[in-house]
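Journal club prep — side note

Before the paper discussion, L.F. wants everyone to see what a predicted structure for a comparable chain looks like in C-alpha coordinate form. Sequence:
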Amino acid sequence: MAKAPEEKEPASGEAIAVVPSDLDEKTHAEMLMIYNECANSVRFAKSQQWTTTGGALAIFMALGILGELGPHYGFLTTAIVIISMVVSGGSIYSLAIFQFWQQAERGKLNMIAERFSNVLRDVRAYLPPREANVHRYILLFFMLAIILVANWLLILYLQPYIHFGK
Protein backbone atom coordinates (compact mmCIF):
# COMPACT_ATOMS: atom_id res chain seq x y z
CA MET A 1 0.00 0.00 0.00
CA ALA A 2 1.05 3.57 -0.57
CA LYS A 3 2.42 5.42 2.39
CA ALA A 4 1.59 9.01 3.10
CA PRO A 5 4.54 11.33 2.61
CA GLU A 6 6.51 11.94 5.75
CA GLU A 7 5.58 15.01 7.74
CA LYS A 8 7.64 17.93 6.57
CA GLU A 9 6.08 20.59 8.75
CA PRO A 10 8.21 21.99 11.53
CA ALA A 11 7.20 21.11 15.07
CA SER A 12 6.27 24.74 15.80
CA GLY A 13 3.26 24.43 13.48
CA GLU A 14 4.68 26.63 10.73
CA ALA A 15 4.00 25.54 7.16
CA ILE A 16 6.93 24.34 5.11
CA ALA A 17 8.24 26.77 2.56
CA VAL A 18 7.02 26.33 -0.97
CA VAL A 19 9.90 26.39 -3.39
CA PRO A 20 8.51 27.49 -6.77
CA SER A 21 10.02 26.40 -10.03
CA ASP A 22 12.79 28.57 -11.39
CA LEU A 23 11.34 28.54 -14.90
CA ASP A 24 10.36 31.78 -16.59
CA GLU A 25 6.66 32.29 -17.28
CA LYS A 26 6.69 31.21 -20.94
CA THR A 27 8.79 28.11 -20.28
CA HIS A 28 6.57 27.22 -17.31
CA ALA A 29 3.47 27.46 -19.54
CA GLU A 30 5.22 25.33 -22.14
CA MET A 31 6.10 22.70 -19.54
CA LEU A 32 2.50 22.66 -18.27
CA MET A 33 1.24 22.04 -21.79
CA ILE A 34 3.72 19.22 -22.38
CA TYR A 35 2.94 17.74 -18.95
CA ASN A 36 -0.78 17.73 -19.78
CA GLU A 37 -0.16 16.16 -23.20
CA CYS A 38 2.00 13.40 -21.67
CA ALA A 39 -0.61 12.66 -18.99
CA ASN A 40 -3.31 12.46 -21.68
CA SER A 41 -1.11 10.15 -23.75
CA VAL A 42 -0.69 7.79 -20.79
CA ARG A 43 -4.46 7.71 -20.24
CA PHE A 44 -5.07 7.15 -23.96
CA ALA A 45 -2.56 4.29 -24.15
CA LYS A 46 -4.11 2.59 -21.11
CA SER A 47 -7.56 3.02 -22.66
CA GLN A 48 -6.25 1.47 -25.89
CA GLN A 49 -4.91 -1.50 -23.92
CA TRP A 50 -8.34 -2.19 -22.44
CA THR A 51 -10.02 -1.65 -25.82
CA THR A 52 -7.57 -4.07 -27.44
CA THR A 53 -8.29 -6.67 -24.76
CA GLY A 54 -12.06 -6.25 -25.12
CA GLY A 55 -11.81 -6.30 -28.90
CA ALA A 56 -9.84 -9.54 -28.87
CA LEU A 57 -12.46 -11.12 -26.59
CA ALA A 58 -15.25 -9.95 -28.93
CA ILE A 59 -13.42 -11.44 -31.92
CA PHE A 60 -12.99 -14.75 -30.07
CA MET A 61 -16.72 -14.74 -29.30
CA ALA A 62 -17.57 -14.09 -32.97
CA LEU A 63 -15.18 -16.84 -34.07
CA GLY A 64 -16.76 -19.26 -31.60
CA ILE A 65 -20.24 -18.47 -32.92
CA LEU A 66 -19.04 -18.82 -36.52
CA GLY A 67 -17.40 -22.15 -35.67
CA GLU A 68 -20.58 -23.42 -34.02
CA LEU A 69 -23.02 -22.25 -36.70
CA GLY A 70 -20.81 -22.71 -39.78
CA PRO A 71 -20.13 -25.92 -41.63
CA HIS A 72 -18.25 -28.41 -39.45
CA TYR A 73 -15.94 -29.69 -42.13
CA GLY A 74 -13.22 -28.47 -44.35
CA PHE A 75 -11.18 -25.34 -44.10
CA LEU A 76 -13.45 -23.14 -41.96
CA THR A 77 -12.70 -24.53 -38.50
CA THR A 78 -8.99 -24.71 -39.23
CA ALA A 79 -9.06 -21.12 -40.44
CA ILE A 80 -10.89 -20.03 -37.28
CA VAL A 81 -8.14 -21.51 -35.09
CA ILE A 82 -5.43 -19.84 -37.18
CA ILE A 83 -7.27 -16.50 -37.07
CA SER A 84 -7.66 -16.77 -33.31
CA MET A 85 -3.93 -17.32 -32.88
CA VAL A 86 -3.12 -14.36 -35.14
CA VAL A 87 -5.55 -12.19 -33.15
CA SER A 88 -3.90 -13.32 -29.90
CA GLY A 89 -0.42 -12.55 -31.18
CA GLY A 90 -1.44 -9.17 -32.58
CA SER A 91 -3.26 -8.23 -29.39
CA ILE A 92 -0.36 -9.18 -27.17
CA TYR A 93 2.05 -7.26 -29.42
CA SER A 94 -0.24 -4.21 -29.27
CA LEU A 95 -0.48 -4.41 -25.48
CA ALA A 96 3.32 -4.43 -25.27
CA ILE A 97 3.63 -1.43 -27.60
CA PHE A 98 1.11 0.53 -25.54
CA GLN A 99 2.98 -0.40 -22.35
CA PHE A 100 6.30 0.87 -23.75
CA TRP A 101 4.59 4.04 -24.95
CA GLN A 102 3.21 4.66 -21.47
CA GLN A 103 6.66 4.12 -19.97
CA ALA A 104 8.18 6.70 -22.33
CA GLU A 105 5.46 9.23 -21.48
CA ARG A 106 5.96 8.62 -17.74
CA GLY A 107 9.66 9.32 -18.21
CA LYS A 108 8.77 12.67 -19.77
CA LEU A 109 6.39 13.39 -16.88
CA ASN A 110 9.19 12.71 -14.40
CA MET A 111 11.60 15.00 -16.25
CA ILE A 112 9.06 17.81 -16.33
CA ALA A 113 8.02 17.33 -12.70
CA GLU A 114 11.65 17.80 -11.57
CA ARG A 115 11.48 21.37 -12.88
CA PHE A 116 8.26 22.28 -11.06
CA SER A 117 7.70 23.25 -7.44
CA ASN A 118 8.41 21.06 -4.45
CA VAL A 119 4.65 20.77 -3.82
CA LEU A 120 4.07 19.04 -7.16
CA ARG A 121 6.98 16.69 -6.49
CA ASP A 122 5.53 15.88 -3.04
CA VAL A 123 2.12 15.10 -4.55
CA ARG A 124 3.66 12.90 -7.26
CA ALA A 125 5.73 11.08 -4.61
CA TYR A 126 2.58 10.04 -2.74
CA LEU A 127 2.55 6.73 -4.63
CA PRO A 128 6.11 5.38 -4.88
CA PRO A 129 7.20 4.67 -8.48
CA ARG A 130 8.04 1.05 -7.71
CA GLU A 131 4.54 0.39 -6.34
CA ALA A 132 2.94 2.13 -9.32
CA ASN A 133 5.00 -0.07 -11.68
CA VAL A 134 3.90 -3.20 -9.83
CA HIS A 135 0.25 -2.17 -10.25
CA ARG A 136 0.73 -1.44 -13.96
CA TYR A 137 2.45 -4.74 -14.68
CA ILE A 138 -0.12 -6.75 -12.71
CA LEU A 139 -2.84 -5.22 -14.89
CA LEU A 140 -0.81 -5.94 -18.03
CA PHE A 141 -0.33 -9.55 -16.90
CA PHE A 142 -4.09 -9.97 -16.42
CA MET A 143 -4.79 -8.50 -19.86
CA LEU A 144 -2.33 -10.95 -21.42
CA ALA A 145 -3.72 -13.86 -19.40
CA ILE A 146 -7.31 -13.03 -20.39
CA ILE A 147 -6.41 -13.06 -24.07
CA LEU A 148 -4.46 -16.31 -23.86
CA VAL A 149 -7.12 -18.09 -21.77
CA ALA A 150 -9.92 -16.90 -24.08
CA ASN A 151 -8.01 -18.20 -27.11
CA TRP A 152 -7.40 -21.51 -25.37
CA LEU A 153 -11.10 -21.79 -24.43
CA LEU A 154 -12.11 -21.04 -28.04
CA ILE A 155 -9.86 -23.82 -29.33
CA LEU A 156 -11.22 -26.23 -26.71
CA TYR A 157 -14.76 -25.24 -27.66
CA LEU A 158 -14.07 -25.90 -31.34
CA GLN A 159 -12.04 -29.08 -30.72
CA PRO A 160 -14.79 -31.47 -31.89
CA TYR A 161 -14.90 -29.69 -35.26
CA ILE A 162 -11.16 -29.32 -35.89
CA HIS A 163 -9.72 -31.78 -38.38
CA PHE A 164 -6.10 -31.02 -39.15
CA GLY A 165 -5.05 -33.03 -42.20
CA LYS A 166 -7.91 -35.56 -41.96
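L.F.'s comment for the group: The two ends are 56 Å apart (CA to CA). Keep this in mind when we get to the figures.
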